[in-house]
Specification:
Elements: E1 26-32, H1 50-58, E2 60-66, H2 72-81, H3 100-106, E3 110-115, E4 133-135, H4 144-151, H5 153-173, H6 188-202, E5 207-213, H7 224-229, H8 237-248, H9 255-271, E6 279-284, E7 289-290, E8 296-297, H10 304-307, E9 308-309, E10 311-314, E11 321-328, H11 332-339, H12 354-357, E12 368-374, E13 391-397, E14 401-406, E15 412-416, H13 433-460, H14 474-482
Parallel strand pairs: 1-5, 1-6, 2-11, 3-4, 3-5
Antiparallel strand pairs: 2-9, 2-10, 6-10, 7-8, 12-13, 13-14, 14-15
Helix pairs in contact: 4-14, 8-9
Length: 486
């Protein structure tokens, strides 16, 4: 494990130690890739996600939780290190900053992290720091055939779907009703098995466990029974294949294909099942777009379908409640350390949510800032990995307003979230007095954030600054290719 204790730079701020009642000895952090808030029933009653409902009934549901970026490498520095992406090195990753796992490990807390094969959450970008046990499930791929399937998970899914009648017949003959043989496209069971073994091995030892699910990320290939649970009719295998073919080949996506993709996505969300016996935190790392603003997946934009995420905290001894006020995912690390009676790192940008979880206080009235980097095209790939890969877009959000500005090319947008939840009517074009007041409040926040990121990038390029990491190895690049990041 690498030592990531380093200078916090522009964002350093003092943090007081948060102590709690001595009834929380373990914390489990569940993150679900590409999970937008309105995909689960605690945020949208039309959805069917009973496990999430159970957690929400017991815990605190944050109504206005926002990711700090539109995709995993832009969001996770806040989730596992409470730092803005690019703030310290001008690059993605958490090298050189105090991580959540590292802070807990230094305090004697056992730490385990298990990621279902997202190539951006690996030791290459520093995410193993502080974990006693860490497994990203990005294995070496030996044969050309296995490399091809790893890079083309939809093809793998088709092969498995074609073989599923034979596997089902075999399961029936063995009197085995477990549907796990039909869930091979996700590493969910590998992750859960490793996480369970980590917990069992701890005994009575306090621990922090992080589990990252990839089921809701493209391609959406849930088990058939979960598709049936979220749709009025059975979505046939041929329609699943057709929907993926349309998107994979770049064909025009009509209403029927879009509806099929939404159903597959909801089935994948339904597939994620969670149970807890300790303090449990559940969050999406970013959302997912279904042509809300003209595209699919999570390309470089900062609208709510990509930035508004679920955040639920179920802590022992607290009652279920809904929490208003805007919060960012950088609040997760100080919330975890507070629950375990460990001092947060001074460099962390977020504040603990425990007072809000307990009903003692409301979140601070502070805009949540998110960023993305956009190349010449909105859909340009690969994903930008530093600030020089395109224009920097920065947004600031409150429960009422969303303000977005292109920090390099100029231009801004303003949306009134209560009356325009889909963010379709840009109020910066002909602003009212209230609109101008919102712009005057949020524009300085956005511009100061952009200046700080630029200064961090300039420092990184100066004398005495360590160079960035080498290019990822073949296994990581193959896994990123499987996620559509070429």
């Amino acid at each position: 494990m690498r030592d990531s204790r380093g200078a916090p730079g522009e964002y350093e701020s003092a943090r007081a130690t948060m102590t709690t009642d001595a009834d929380t000895s373990n914390v489990v952090l569940i993150t679900v890739d590409s999970l937008r808030a309105d995909a689960i029933s605690p945020y949208d009653s039309d959805r069917h996600t009973p496990v999430f409902d159970g957690i929400a009934d017991r815990g605190a549901v944050f109504e206005h939780a926002f990711a700090t970026g539109n995709w995993t490498p832009f969001s996770f520095p806040s989730i596992l290190a409470s730092r803005p992406v690019f703030a310290d090195t001008g690059r993605i990753g958490v090298d050189g900053v105090p991580t959540l796992a590292g802070t807990l490990s230094d305090a004697g807390i056992a730490t385990g992290g298990f990621n279902a094969a997202n190539g951006f959450l690996t030791s290459h970008w520093g995410y193993d720091d502080g974990f006693d046990e860490f497994e990203p499930f990005v294995a070496d791929i030996s044969s050309a055939y296995s490399r091809y399937l790893a890079a083309h998970p939809t093809v793998e899914a088709w092969l498995q779907l074609a073989a599923s009648p034979f596997r089902r017949a075999g399961a029936w003959l063995r009197r085995d009703t477990d549907e796990r043989p039909f869930l091979d496209t996700s590493r969910m069971f590998d992750v859960e098995r490793s996480a369970a073994e980590f917990v069992e091995d701890r005994g009575d030892e306090p621990f922090f466990l992080w589990v990252h699910y990839m089921d809701a990320h493209t391609p959406y290939v849930p088990a058939p029974r979960y598709v049936r649970e979220v749709s009025d009719s059975v979505l046939g295998t041929h329609r699943m294949i057709l929907a993926h073919t349309h998107t994979g080949l770049g064909w025009e996506v009509g209403e029927r294909t879009l509806a099929d993709l939404r159903t597959l996505y909801q089935g994948a969300v339904r597939q994620v099942g969670l149970r807890d016996e300790t303090c449990l935190i559940v969050a999406g790392d970013h959302g997912e777009e279904f042509q809300d603003h003209g595209h699919l997946a999570h390309y470089p934009k900062l609208y709510d379908e990509l930035i508004r995420v679920p955040l639920i905290v179920d802590a022992p001894g607290v009652d279920g409640r809904r929490v208003e006020g805007a919060v960012g995912l950088d609040a997760i690390p100080p919330t975890v350390t507070g629950a375990l009676d460990v001092a947060p790192a001074d460099a962390w940008a977020g504040e603990s949510l425990l007072p809000s979880v307990r009903g003692e206080a409301v979140p601070a009235d502070r805009p949540v800032v998110s960023v993305t980097v956009r190349g010449e095209e909105v859909t340009a790939q690969p994903i930008p990995r530093d600030l020089d890969d395109g224009d920097l877009l920065v947004s600031a959000r409150t429960p009422t307003w969303t303000y977005v500005e292109n920090a390099d090319a100029g231009g801004c947008e303003l949306y009134h979230r209560p009356t325009d939840p889909d963010q379709q009517a840009d109020r910066s074009v002909d602003p009212t007095a209230d609109d101008r007041a919102a712009i005057e409040r949020l524009r300085p926040v956005v511009r100061e954030h952009a200046r700080r990121l630029r200064r961090a990038a300039d420092r990184e390029g100066g004398e005495g600054i360590a160079p960035g990491p080498e290019e990822p190895d073949e296994a990581i690049e193959t896994r990123l290719s499987a996620l559509g990041y070429r």
